[in-house]
Specification:
By secondary structure, this protein is an alpha+beta fold. Helices cover 20% and strands 46% of the residues.
Length: 138
């Protein structure tokens, strides 16, 4: 056993350097793959993300409920300015809904809120929830 430790001693700096490089690569990949802005409705029915896709940023709205849901209105409130992304007709929600495609990276001092109105078997609902920054430093 001491013979093996003695042989590894000259390579200690190389091994430590390689481990640091792999740890750095892992951390970079972990942080760069996280959504930059994310939010979930108080009812836990909706989740919205605004993420980087190569050069541009894209927003996606996902329904977390298994029930049949009809989306009536969907807006993003950016720094108090409301932008409507509602579908042209009421849409039965079955797959993720893309909004803000080819967008710009959000600035640190900007605020984003989602305002959504939908109908399910229990009636019509309206919620507003913030999109908050994730722990992605990039």
């Amino acid at each position: 056993m001491t013979c093996l430790i003695g042989k590894l001693h000259p390579y200690r700096r190389t091994i430590i350097t390689v481990l640091i490089i792999f740890a750095g690569m892992y951390l970079y990949y972990f942080f760069s793959s996280q959504p930059h802005l994310t939010g979930q409705s108080p009812s836990k029915v909706w989740k919205a993300e605004y993420t980087r896709s190569d050069t541009y940023w894209e927003g996606t709205l996902k329904c977390l409920s298994e029930d049949a849901i009809t989306l009536h209105r969907f807006s993003i409130i950016e720094n108090g300015k409301k932008v409507d992304y509602s579908p042209h007709n009421d849409m039965i929600f079955q797959q993720p809904f893309d909004f803000m495609s080819l967008g710009d990276r959000p600035q640190r001092n900007e605020t984003y809120k989602v305002q959504i109105e939908w109908k399910d078997s229990k009636g019509t609902h309206k919620e507003t929830f913030p999109l908050e920054r994730s722990y992605n430093p990039f």
